[in-house]
Amino acid sequence: MADTSKSRPVNEPEDDASSSGSDSYEELRHLILAPEQEALERLHERINNPDLRTEDVSGVVAEAIERRRELGGSDALSDALAPTIETALRESVRKDPSTLADALFPVMGPAIRRSILETLRSFLDSFNQILDQSLSWQGLKWRMEALRTGRSFTEVALLHSLVFRVEQVFLIHKKTGLPIAHAVATAVAMQDPSLVSGMLSAIQDFVRDSFHTGQGQGVNRMNVGDLDVWVENGPYAILAVVIRGIAPRSLRQRMDETLEKIHADYAEQLASYEGDSAPFTNVHQELTECLEAKFKEETRPGGYGYALAAGAILLVLVGGWLGWRSWQYYRWSQLAETLGNQPGLAITSFGREHGHFEIRGLRDPLAADPNKIVADSGLDPAKAEFHWGAYYALDDTLIEQRAIAALAPPPGVRLAVKDGVLHVDGNPSAKWLADVRSRGLLIPGIRSLDLGQFTPEQIAFNEARARIQAVVIRFPVASSELSSAERVNLRNIMPVFKEMMSFPVPAHATMSIEVVGHSDNTGAESLNENLSQRRADRITLQLVQFGIPVVALHAKGVATAEPVRPEVNEENRQYNRSTTFRILVPAASQP
Amino acid sequence: MIQKKICMLGSFAVGKTSLVRRFVESIFSDKYLTTVGVKIDKKVVRVNAVEANLVLWDLYGDDDFQKIRWTHFRGAAGYLLVADGTRRATFEKAILLEERARAEIGPVPFVFVSNKCDLTAEWEFDSTIEAQIAAKGWATLRTSAKTGEGVDEAFAKLAGKMLG
């Protein structure tokens, strides 16, 4: 301002000049600066006045959002708007739920309807399936399995229903019907994916047009024979799977998830798809996974294992039982045969009745005890029931036993039966032989008697021999002196000697008389031998003196080797200080 | 590989299906046309050393009795606009169809073909029509589904426009 006053012209009056100059300056200033000033003021007003600013923004907000979307990065915009929109929606519902309900009604209706339809269809599917299966052979099989495993029939049936195979998976671009990606199971005959995709989407369009359904709806299931085509509709793409067999409803859910994931991961690529599948190479992997995850073996391993094991055990048990039974039968039949082979036992019938073996037959009273034979064979006699009829068996052994029981042969006499002929051996008395002659043929089984060798002479010879052999000539202790008493005894027996030797029995020709000297068992054995020999010699000499031919005599000292009586007392010992006689007839010349 | 959906568009009996049959080996029967309203074929072509899979949607119609299912037209990357050179009316119809197509899916490449060029004696597309076509700036070709003349070129030209 100082500069201004200085530059003021001097010729102009102070006040006037000052006022008029000031006015013109103001005017000039006004002329020059007024528009800017006003603009500035308006701007100021605009910035400070919220009403005006709101009006300004409202004019461009729609274009701004549009522009932002075009520039890309719409995510940031969505992120920015989301919280506000969410709050707004909440607030709107809080204030008046009917507004939003009305707005959503056209969307909710179809969504709910579709959800209910899905559920109902799934329920009906499984219900029909179960009904089918419960009346079939397979159903019976599953019922058995349910019984065996303790699970419900429905569970078992459903488990078996999951037999299916996803053969192909198509991801189809909704707008163009072009296949974005395609996965196929191994060894599946297929048409060109682009044609199938095209037709699938054409059919979708066709159905939508024909029945005037909404854009989001369409065919979601096609069924041809045992092939099922399931279709899931997304905003940009369609997921279609070709299934052979009966797939579970969970596959639908999996399709949903896969389609959602693809839409989330490839939102922009899907929106701008123009036939180039290059950005979707990784989708193929997801489709393949979907494909592989849906393979399922028809039968669970071990499903029949238990049945087989049970069957095998049953078979083994039944087989074992039958085998054991047959083995038992075999053993008992063997036993019956053994019994039948026994003398005096005859088996007439053998069989099994009520778990017991019944053996019928005939039994000789003298036959072996069948129960003992059973016990010896290791079988349980309680398992058998015997029914015996009594009879006389004609086996030689039994006839022999019968004869022995009836005739009671004295010691030194043996009986034998051969082919029904009774043979007698030894030195029977005439009296006993008479008994045999009178009763022998009455014994069952004895057809004839063989007593030919027992002539009256032979019997007399035998009796004489027996008498002589019973004689004991005793000696004093340690002596071979023959006492007069014993000499008398010896002389008394001499007639018997002579009678015996006079019998015209062929054997006599070679008969020899052994004079056996004995000693008691006191003293040394060498002395006893000598003593016994002397005693034998003494008697031999005496016999020669009595007239017995010396050639027929043999003296033999046996010392203590053949005691006449066991030396348990003095009397018996006395008998061993003795000489005895043994009449020997060579076997060859025996009658 | 690039895939493109292309449609055959044209009046009834102008030879769309015959052109497709000339161009590819079909797997679907023509019966589909009357039932679903479309028959689909495919052909792999090479354009400037790029292989492309053309999926051909042969749309049924359009005459007074059978309307084209325009939903099938959706998503087409290009189309052959087919007229019958022996019937002038099919050219007028083609003009209408082109307008309708543009309204349906926006401006997409197409090639206008005058089919049945083997029937020279009955040819009706005179200089007036040719002038109109030229005025519209349409890419155009004469074809004969009967002799095969221009068929491959027509598809190649369309592919070139779509991929170029």
Find the structural class of chain A using helix and strand composition: alpha+beta
The total count of strands of chain A amounts to 15
Percentage of residues in strands of chain B: 25-35%
CATH class annotation of chain B: Alpha Beta
The biggest sheet of chain B, with number of strands, parallel, antiparallel or mixed sense and barrel status, is:
6 strands, mixed
CATH C-level of the domain at 162-293 in chain A: Alpha Beta
Overall form of chain B: globular
Query: The CATH topology of chain B, please?
Result: Rossmann fold
Q: Terminal Cα separation of chain B, in Å?
A: 15 Å
Class inferred from helices and paired strands of chain B:
alpha/beta
Biggest interface between chains: A-B, 23 and 25 residues
What does the radius of gyration of chain B come to? 15 Å
Q: Give the overall shape of chain A, derived from the CA principal axes.
A: rod-shaped
Helical content band of chain B: 25-40%
Query: Main beta sheet of chain A: strand number and arrangement?
Result: 5 strands, antiparallel
Write the element-wise H/E pattern of chain B from the N-terminal end onward.
EHHEEHEHEHEH
Might you state the CATH topology name of the domain at 162-293 in chain A? Beta-Lactamase
The amount of beta strand of chain A, in percent, is 15-25%
Mean pLDDT of chain A: 81
Number of strands of chain B: 6
Q: How many helical elements of chain B?
A: 6
Write a compact overview of the structure shown.
The complex is a heterodimer of chains A (591) and B (164). In chain A, 55% of the residues lie in helices and 17% in strands.
Describe the 3D structure.
The complex is a heterodimer of chains A (591) and B (164). Chain A has 591 residues and is of the alpha+beta class. Among the domains of chain A are: 162-293, Beta-Lactamase (2-Layer Sandwich), CATH 3.30.450; 307-387, 2-Layer Sandwich (GMP Synthetase, Chain A, domain 3); 396-454, Histidine-containing Protein, Chain: A (2-Layer Sandwich), CATH 3.30.1340; 464-589, 60s Ribosomal Protein L30, Chain: A. Chain A is 55% helix and 17% strand. Chain A is built from 19 helices and 15 strands. Chain A has helices at residues 2-7, 14-48, 50-71, 74-95, 97-134, 137-149, 153-161, 193-211, 250-265, 267-271, 281-293, 305-341, 370-376, 396-407, 430-439, 456-469, 484-502, 525-545, 570-576; strands at 164-173, 179-184, 221-224, 227-233, 237-245, 345-353, 356-363, 384-390, 413-418, 421-426, 448-450, 473-474, 512-518, 553-559, 578-584. Chain A has a 5-stranded antiparallel β-sheet with strand order 2-1-5-4-3. Chain A has a 4-stranded mixed β-sheet with strand order 12-15-13-14. In chain A, strands 6-7-8 form a 3-stranded mixed β-sheet, with helices on one face. In chain A, a hairpin with a 3-residue loop joins strand 4 (227-233) and strand 5. In chain A, helix 4 (74-95) packs across helix 5 (97-134) and helix 5 crosses helix 7. Chain A starts with a helix and ends in a 7-residue tail after the last strand. The model of chain A is unreliable at 1-14 and 293-302 (pLDDT under 50). Chain B has 164 residues and is of the alpha/beta class. Chain B has a single domain (2-163), classed as P-loop containing nucleotide triphosphate hydrolases (Rossmann fold, 3-Layer(aba) Sandwich). Chain B has helices at residues 16-23, 31-35, 70-73, 88-105, 127-136, 151-163; strands at 2-10, 38-47, 50-59, 78-84, 110-115, 140-142. In chain B, strand 4 (78-84), helix 4 (88-105) and strand 5 (110-115) form a beta-alpha-beta unit. The longest helix of chain B is centred in the middle third of the chain and has 18 residues, at 88-105. Classes of the chains: A alpha+beta (591), B alpha/beta (164). The interface between A and B is medium-sized, with 23 and 25 residues.
